[in-house]
Amino acid sequence: MAPRRPDGAGAFPVPVESPAPAPPDPAELYAALDLGTNSCRMLIAQPKGSQFHVVDSFSKTVQLGEGLEVTGSLGRASMKRTLQALRICQQKLKRHKVRRMRLVATEACRRARNGPEFLRRIRGETGLTLEIIEPEEEARLAVISCAPLVSTRTEQLLVVDIGGGSTELVWIDLSSVPNRDRPRAIMRLHAGFHPPQSPFPAAKVVDWISVPLGVATLRDQFRDVEDDAARYALMSWFFEENLAEFAPYKDEQTREGFQIIGTSGTVTTVAASHLGLRRYDRTKVDGLRMTSDQIDKVIRDYLAMGPAGRRRDPRIGQDRQALIMSGAAILQALLRLWPTDRLSVADRGLREGLLYAQMSADGVLEDAPV
């Protein structure tokens, strides 16, 4: 039996992206597709108040970036797996008659020599037009997706998106924004990290960075290290070294009023392990707050399991057992560097950010506290 959810775990606003109650009008639908280094994910949703209802979804591990660190190109098998997944997405879009959509590709296609060529092949074989987005936009969309989880008491916010091929970090100053308006100020970043003058109080982006190390690319850097614990320690140290130019890292920060939100499969898997879930439950994970001690305990348990034990763990499994340790190395490095003993867990990311950005730009979301 899963343990009782800790008191205070739901202290942040509960998101309301629930399934749509009835067949929606196709004219009201929006779609967002995220083709990453490791996964292909899509959401189809309709706006509802200041949130949205999910109508349909898709997620598949495709390992598009497999071998990219060595060859510099997308592999034949990886592209074949990805095309199979995208054909399913195309069928869902056609079935729901979606007309408003944004389909994006990230780090693997940015880095691969044959990335643009692969996108042309996708269009020819599936009819889907994907665009490669820049790291700044990827970071901005991750921030927007987390707006409902921003506490009204937060003055300094760090949003971390641990992807397959890269990790985006964005530091935001909310101290000049009235408390009640802070989540809403994050949503307004859909216009850019430095939006034009507005009558509303603005969230100030202090700094942001896109580190070209995600769960897949960091793992590949140390694939030749056989010892499990040594490989983990090296990955964590190496990631920390790559954060040296991130400006807030250089200054002493106050613990009070600071919030860190983590969004990724790594963070949600660690949260599910902490809760002892036998079957993943987004409603228990999204918005959960974990202490650094709780996260450390989960990671120590992962190391004690070893590769074979992690494969057998229902929360990790065969596909993710190697990736979870590179993700954990990134997560633990971040918690060493910044002044917090708590992490807010976000089961959301690029897809949600793409939907919020489209809906906000079209003015179909109510400008109410999220």
Automatic annotation (TrEMBL):
Superkingdom of this protein's organism: Bacteria
InterPro entries for this protein: ATPase_NBD, GppA/Ppx_hydrolase, Ppx_GppA_N
Pfam families: Ppx-GppA (PF02541)
Cleaved signal peptide residues: none
Domain Ppx/GppA phosphatase N-terminal: 44-359
Molecular functions (GO terms): pyrophosphatase activity
Residue ranges, annotated region (Disordered): 1-25
Bias kind Pro residues: ranges: 16-25
Protein name (record): Ppx/GppA family phosphatase
Source species: Rhodosalinus halophilus
